[in-house]
Amino acid sequence: MSLPLRILALSLCVLRFAGLPAAAVDYREALPGYIYQFPRDHFEHQDFRTEWWYYTGNVTTPRGERFGFELVFFRQGFQNRLEAQSAVSPAPWPVRDLYLSHAALTDAKGRKFWYEERLNRAGPGLAGASFNRRRVWNGNWSAQWQGETQTLDAVTGNFRFHLRLTPGTPVVIHGENGVSQKAEGSGRASHYISFPLLAVSGTIGSGANHDTPVSGTAWMDHEWFTEQLAPDQVGWDWFSVQLANHTELMLFELRRKDGSIDPYSSGTFIDARGVPRHLRRDEFSLRPLTLWHKYPIAWRLSVPSLNIDLTSHAVLPDQELRPNTSGSSKISAAPGYWEGAVDYSGTQTGVGYLEMTGYDGPVKF
Questions:
Q1: Which residues, listed in sequence order, are joined to residue 127 by a DSSP beta bridge?
Q2: How high is the mean pLDDT in each 10-residue block of the chain (365 residues)?
Q3: Short-list 328, 326, 332, 322, CA closest to 157
Q4: What is the pTM of this model?
Q5: What pLDDT is attached to residue 94?
Q6: Which residues contact 26 (CB under 8 A, 6 or more apart)?
């Protein structure tokens, strides 16, 4: 349930430059009854307009130094595949899909947060997602699959990581009847899957520091859809939770313009066997506790039927991805959003990630 607000501004900017329309014509909608097929569904769905692969995790060095990491790949379609195939004289660099990527690193001990972003069209292999190659990539940032094990690589001006992710539980399908419904109406939904518990090993380097061995856990989200949010929804708060008792939890609430919480907010609980249970909006509560500027960086999460009562605290208050203030690309002028590593305490302890959008401007998507 993750989307940088930049994607629309970046997409429209490139389309204006290329002189292309932004309207989709006949992309598929995310509808109930979808039959998932793995491993095929881990990769590209170009008959849907929007898709992302989202990796977040918490790792430590042998000396106990803590890092949070994020690597995200987005695909935004602007020309349906059937249209592209029927073109008589396609351009050598057609803009049929744009690929936006984010990489971020939180250094808890050093109290530093870095991120960078990049935008590419597919071109001659610059970026893409390929079932045949078992790979998602943007330049030298990539997620390479071997079976269900995934290897992440990212190199930026401030940090770099090489991480191997191995599933500890099976893939989870969120929502009901094959869709995660986000608003009233046909197609206002996504097909949403996750690996909620990935064991991580590899190396991380930052600044002039040498690459250091790390280990820990990660969470991977993959969503694809054509339409999702309703006009009166301005943003969301999304939580991934990995608890010490070997259970996991995902919760999100969708905020409306009038300040209310949309009833299509929902979640998923994954038990120690890896079995998911859908959670309706009335089965959990999310209450903000502490603000950092406009963002609530401490929350209380409660799922009474599961005896879950947790408090989340940000590992570092400033984990905001601000437009045009960090990274070498400086290509976005869209509103910022907050996404970062958090700790959980209460009825259980654990780690995870929190994403908050719509506080710096509504999601226009």
A1: 138
A2: 48 41 69 96 95 97 97 85 49 74 95 94 87 96 97 96 97 97 93 98 88 97 90 92 98 94 97 97 97 96 98 97 55 74 98 94 63
A3: 328
A4: 0.89
A5: 64
A6: 80, 82
Rounded distance, CA 317 to CA 113, Å?
10
Q: Are 72 and 54 in contact (CB under 8 A)?
A: yes
Rounded-to-10 torsion of CA 289, 344, 325, 60: 160
Residue whose entry in the numeric block shows the structure tokens 């120690």 = 272
* Maximal C-alpha separation, the chain: 62
Report yes or no: 332 and 323 within 8 Å, Cβ to Cβ.
yes
Chain centre to alpha carbon of residue 200: 17
State the Cα–Cα distance between residues 214 and 164, nearest whole angstrom: 10
Domain-by-domain residue ranges, the chain?
Answer: 6-356
Does 2.60.40.1120 match the CATH number of domain 6-356?
no
SS (H, E, C) the chain: CCCCCHHHHHHHHHHHHHCCCCCCCCCCCCCCCCCCCCCHHHCCCCCCCEEEEEEEEEEECCCCCEEEEEEEEEEEECCCHHHHHHCCCCCCCCCCEEEEEEEEEEECCCCEEEEEEEEEECCCCCEEEECCCCEEEECCEEEEEECCEEEEEEECCCEEEEEEEEECCCCEECCECCEEECCCCCCEEEEEEEEEEEEEEEEEEECCCCCEEEEEEEEEEEEEECECCCCCEEEEEEEEEEECCCCEEEEEEEEECCCCECCCCEEEEECCCCCEEEECHHHCEEEEEEEECCEEEEEEEEEHHHCEEEEEEECCCCCEECCCCCCCCCCCCCCCEEEEEEEEEECCCEEEEEEECCCCCCCCC
What's the CA gap between 113 and 318, in Å, rounded?
Answer: 7
Name residue 160's amino acid: R
Residue type for position 25: V
| Separation of alpha carbons 357 and 100, rounded Å | 17
